Amino acid sequence: MIFRPAIAADLPAIVALLADDALGAGREDLTDLEPYAAAFAHLDANTLLAVAEIDGVARATLQMTVIQGLSNRGRRFALLQAVRVDSALRGRGVGAAFIAWAMDQARARGCSAIELFTHESREAAQRFYARLGFAPSHVGMRRTL
C-alpha cells in the first residue's frame, strides 16, 4: 500500500469510491467528471486530497483540510472528510492504516487535533472511528445556501 497525494489522473477512481455507498450513489456523477476536476484545481496548500494505492490503483481516498483557528490559543487542527475505502477491501486494515497516515500528516503540519465528519446514517463508519480513538464531541449542523 502506498499513501500519497492524489493527482488529476486519480479523479475517476476517487469519484467511483465516493459513489460506492448508499449516500454517495445518490449524489455523485460518474458520467461527468468536470465538476470534480474544477474542484481539484481549486484545492489549496491547506487541503490534502490523498489516495491509498494498491497494485497501482487508488483503492481508498480521504480529504484533509488544515484549519488555523484563533480559539484555543491559535490551535491548528485537521478536518477529515470523504474517507472511503473500496468496499471489497473493508475490514482488511486499509482504512486504519490510511487514517494513521493522515494523522501523521496532520502532526507534520502542526495540528494538535484531528476531527472528522461522518453522516449520522453511517453507523459502521462511526464504530470504525471509535475503534481508532475518535469520540463524539460536537453536534454538526448544516444549512443549504
In DSSP terms (H or I, runs of 4 or more residues), the helix count works out at 6
Strand content: 25-35%
Number of domains: 1
What is the string of helix and strand elements?
EHHHEEHEHEH
By CATH reckoning, the class would read: Alpha Beta
Task: Give a structural overview.
The chain is α+β, with helices and mostly antiparallel strands. The chain has one domain: Gcn5-related N-acetyltransferase (GNAT) (Aminopeptidase). The protein is 34% helix and 26% strand. The chain is built from 6 helices and 5 strands. The chain has helices at 11-18, 22-27, 34-41, 71-74, 94-108, 123-131, and strands at 2-5, 47-54, 57-68, 76-85, 113-116. The chain has a 5-stranded mixed β-sheet with strand order 1-2-3-4-5, sandwiched between helices. Helix 5 links the parallel strand 4 (76-85) and strand 5 (113-116). The longest helix has 15 residues, at 94-108. The chain starts with a strand and ends in a 14-residue tail after the last helix. The model has no long low-confidence stretch (mean pLDDT 93).
Question: Topology, pairings included?
Answer:
Blueprint: E1 2-5, H1 11-18, H2 22-27, H3 34-41, E2 47-54, E3 57-68, H4 71-74, E4 76-85, H5 94-108, E5 113-116, H6 123-131
Parallel strand pairs: 4-5
Antiparallel strand pairs: 1-2, 2-3, 3-4
Q: Descriptors for this entry?
A:
globular, 34% helix, Aminopeptidase, alpha+beta
Kindly summarize this structure in a few lines:
It is built from six helices and five strands. With 145 residues, the protein is an alpha+beta fold. The longest helix is centred in the last third of the chain and has 15 residues, at 94-108.
